[in-house]
């Protein structure tokens, strides 16, 4: 399959967003979605999917280090299920263990010290890493 893929890195206050190019080769960050923690901002989430004309969605799955399901992982699964129903698109879960730490390291290498970046930068970078991992795992695959 071709078409853009959107990835979401779920958080209590922010949702990192990344989108692929139409050939599903490269992930790029988008504006982070803010949330109040109590509910999901479905209108904003669905607007990103619509604006990008996505044909697939990926949600970060925060598993425990040993690969077992965490409480946050269960929340991600419930979010993915609801997103499938609301968007009508296929939604995959992608292991996101250590993506925030990796995102912090990646941003540090760009010369942006902790004081010059906000948490939204880290969430966006984590979403990029989640999506790029998903894309790379399917490189050349007819999905």
How would you describe the overall organization of this protein?
With 143 residues, the protein is an alpha/beta fold. The protein has one domain (5-137): YqgF/RNase H-like domain (Nucleotidyltransferase, domain 5, 2-Layer Sandwich), CATH 3.30.420.140. Helix content is 41%, strand content 22%. The longest helix is centred in the C-terminal third of the chain and has 19 residues, at 119-137. The chain is globular and about 35 Å long. The N and C termini lie close together (5 Å). The mean pLDDT is 85.
At a glance:
The chain is an alpha/beta fold and 143 residues long. 41% of the residues lie in helices and 22% in strands.
CATH topology type: Nucleotidyltransferase, domain 5
Radius of gyration over C-alpha positions, nearest whole angstrom: 14 Å
Label the structural class.
alpha/beta
Overall spatial form: globular
Helical segment count: 4
User: Order of strands in the sheet with the most strands?
Assistant: 3-2-1-4-5
> Architecture, according to CATH?
2-Layer Sandwich
List the main descriptive attributes of the protein structure presented here.
143 residues, alpha/beta, Nucleotidyltransferase, domain 5, 5-stranded mixed sheet, 4 helices, 22% strand, globular
Layout: helices, strands, pairs:
Layout: E1 5-9, E2 14-20, E3 27-34, H1 42-52, E4 56-61, H2 71-87, E5 91-95, H3 99-109, H4 119-137
Helix pairs in contact: 3-4
